[in-house]
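Please complete every field before forwarding. Incomplete forms are returned to the sender.

SECTION A: IDENTIFIERS
Entry label: holo-146
Bound molecule: magnesium ion
Molecule representation: SMILES string

SECTION B: INPUTS
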Amino acid sequence: MNEILYTRTYQIQGRDFEHGGEASSDIKEALKKMGLNSQVVKRTAIASYEAEMNIIVYAENGELILEVFPHMVKVTAIDRGPGIEDVELAMKEGYSTAPPEIREMGFGSGMGLPNIKRNADRLVIESIPGKGTKVTFEIDIPNAVL
Ligand SMILES: Nc1ncnc2c1ncn2[C@@H]1O[C@H](COP(=O)(O)OP(=O)(O)O)[C@@H](O)[C@H]1O
Ligand SMILES: [Mg+2]
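SECTION C: PREDICTED COMPLEX
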């Protein structure tokens, strides 16, 4: 019932904007190929993209881990980086510490974490300032038949 159907790990390099979004696009394609509900695919892709870009913008490096179970998709984004001092504040819509050069690239609207929360059924953010951050979210698969 809870056996894992598929898993894949993506290495994400901080500041590597050139490849930014590749892991989440790959996740989207993998879930589509598995025949998952299109809303589940869309929500997972959006949340994964935000988590991936946060590693690229803020962290040294990290990983995006995709795990597909019969009843849910789970994504873990774990990084080595500055961490988040105040997670509650970081969750607020519009809150961003992105510097001007990052804003010029179109990031830093402060909607990433709220967007993950909106698209996920469950979200857990764990962070140790100075060490790194772990963002875990799950998206339920309705009427799961795989
Ligand atoms: N992986 C991370 N490592 C360190 N800080 C992060 C990370 N993800 C988010 N943050 C912090 O949380 C804030 C809000 O993130 P988010 O909602 O994605 O908005 P934005 O990326 O546009 O700033 C960021 O500005 C940053 O301060
Ligand atoms: Mg962001």
